[in-house]
Amino acid sequence: MKIESVNELCKIISPKYNIRPSLMMAICEQESSFDETAVRLENGFYRKYVRPMELPTIVEILLSASYGLTQTIGESLYELKYFSNANDVHLVTDQLEAYMRSPAMQIEMGCKWFSKKLELAKGDISKALLFWNGGANKNYHYEVLEKEKKYAVAT
Fold first, then answer.
1. CA atoms within 13 A on the CB side of 52
2. Which residues touch 93 (CB under 8 Å, ≥6 apart)?
């Protein structure tokens, strides 16, 4: 997706969640390199959190992947009530298909999820970024905040 288009969406959506558009731009770059079709299976997350839920196997896999511009994980989308019924494989796949066709929804859900991380971190953006990343990359917050600098002027 063109960076300019992502920037426009971030300018519209992220202020609703008290998130700087430049920060959301940096998250999109870090997570997906602005590829709204990006999908990645998060094996560690699957083993630790989703497998014990004993859902149908395909739903377990769908909830264990991260999607789109912000690479929001399926389980997070479930917690945000994006999925109406995680036990219905057809419904989950239909809703994920719609999600993957909507960069605006990807940013919306990413902002919603990040706002929860900000709340958990009591407003500390660095801590919120580390919560977002789940501890997989100890330098994640530095990398995102460095990327944000180039978008602070553009947004």
1. 5
2. 58, 62
* Burial class for 119, CB neighbours closer than 10 Å (0-12, 13-18, 19+): exposed
* Residues in the chain with pLDDT values less than 50: 155
H or E element at residue 50: none
Cβ atoms of 145 and 129 within 8 Å: the answer is yes
pTM, to two decimals? 0.90
Strands of 39-41's sheet in order across: 39-41, 65-67, 72-73
Contacts of 48 by beta carbon, 8 Å cutoff, 6+ apart: none
